[in-house]
Amino acid sequence: MAQFNYTAISGTNQRISGTIRCQDRDDCLRQLKLRCYHPLEITEASEKSDGLTLVLRGLFQRVSVSNLATFTRQLSALLRAGLPMIKALAILRRQIHNKRLVGIIEDIEETVARDGGTLAEALEEHSRVFDAVYRGLVRAGEEGGKLVEVLGDLAIHLSKSARLRGQVIGAFIYPTFISFLGFAAVFVLMTFVIPQFKELFENVGNKMPLPTRILINASDFMAQWWWAILMIFGFILTVMIVILRRPSVRKRIDRTALEIPILGSMFVKLEISRISRTLGTLLNSGVGILTALRVTGETAKNRAIKETFSEIIKGVSSGEPVAAVLEKANLYPPLMINLVRTGEETGELPAMLMELAAIYEDEAERAITSAVKLIEPLLIVIVGGVVASIVAAVMLPILEANTMVS
């Protein structure tokens, strides 16, 4: 069975694109017509799905965590209302506006209807969109007969993750904007504005002050070689990205990031809130402790914390309590260790993990606010200081000339 890309007009006169698995092109046409689609273009996936196409599709047709949360919540509600899986997916396919997600739902719908597979099996074909946590929870829900409840919990988990992620991104948009604006302003001043003052300074007749001479020389260099500076900057940035992708380098940087004053505390709290909620949701849905730990470890963003999970899994598999293994890692705060220990002793580990997630989500929000309050004025002072130094170097010979005339 081959995979085909298609572009078609839906029953609501919307232009949609997606993929479908069929025996051949004729079978693909029949499948699309059964869905009340009018095909415009059909190509076998191998014909056009080159690397550039996949990259562009990932950039412009991205499925966000918020999209997944909405889809999961609606699917849970439809199944709770008694609708069969196929009909629920068909309804969601017509309601969702994200074209990539529409195509994925169509593929899932086909896998479940035609191949007789489970929802978890259908999700495996789209592992880039549905991560290990999502797939693991759905599989546990289907095996335990609690799919509706699991989807509800998963929707809450995704919503909270999306909200925290949005807060982090939103908090650092303004500092990033200030940094970019300051860099652009200095670059324009040095490259295009300061050279206009060179002739004026030379006509003054007196020897220019040292700061002004340095400024003029730097400005001459940038005006002549600005294109080379941009190319070198781009090259350095590319090299840094390549180096940062090395696991050993990334691990050292991530461990150092956890020790940075203020920011380090924020990173730790974000990671603990993420892994606590993920582990608690998995355990609450009936996933085994070792599987839950393995999946949770994959969701950690910080490499230093992610690598502790191999030791945690090894220790738990040999019979050690989770809290004892966490304590050995020397990365997790006492509050987390104590709450996990209490949960294990009382048999309420999932509930304690969810409580821990709520605590650290609040702590992370406060840490983000504190970090932004520190970074914003610091950036303003740095950018203002650089611009003020340039202006001062420009004004010095003018002030000296006025003094001599007086």
What's the alpha carbon Rg, rounded to whole Å?
A: 29 Å
Give the CATH superfamily of the largest domain: Type II secretion system (T2SS), domain F
Q: How would you characterize the largest beta sheet? A: 3 strands, antiparallel
Order of helices and strands: EEHEHHHHHHHHHHHHHHHHH
- Low-pLDDT runs of 5+ residues are 47-56
Distance between the termini: 91 Å
Strand order of the largest sheet: 2-1-3
Sheet/helix structural class: mainly alpha
Can you walk through the features of this model?
- With 406 residues, the chain is mostly helical.
- It has three domains: 2-60, no CATH class; 65-161, Receptor-associated Protein (Up-down Bundle), CATH 1.20.81.30; 166-406, Type II secretion system (T2SS), domain F (Receptor-associated Protein).
- Helices cover 77% and strands 6% of the residues.
- The protein contains 18 helices and three strands.
- It has helices spanning 25-34, 45-48, 51-60, 65-80, 85-95, 99-114, 119-124, 132-144, 147-193, 198-204, 210-244, 247-257, 263-284, 289-299, 303-317, 322-329, 334-346, 349-405, and strands at residues 2-9, 15-22, 38-44.
- The chain has a three-stranded antiparallel beta sheet with strand order 2-1-3.
- A hairpin with a 5-residue loop joins strand 1 (2-9) and strand 2.
- Helix 4 (65-80) packs antiparallel against helix 9.
- It starts with a strand and ends with a helix.
- Mean pLDDT is 82; it is low at 47-56.
Summarize this entry quickly.
This protein has 406 residues and is mainly alpha-helical. The protein has helices at residues 25-34, 45-48, 51-60, 65-80, 85-95, 99-114, 119-124, 132-144, 147-193, 198-204, 210-244, 247-257, 263-284, 289-299, 303-317, 322-329, 334-346, 349-405, and strands spanning 2-9, 15-22, 38-44. The protein contains 18 helices and 3 strands.
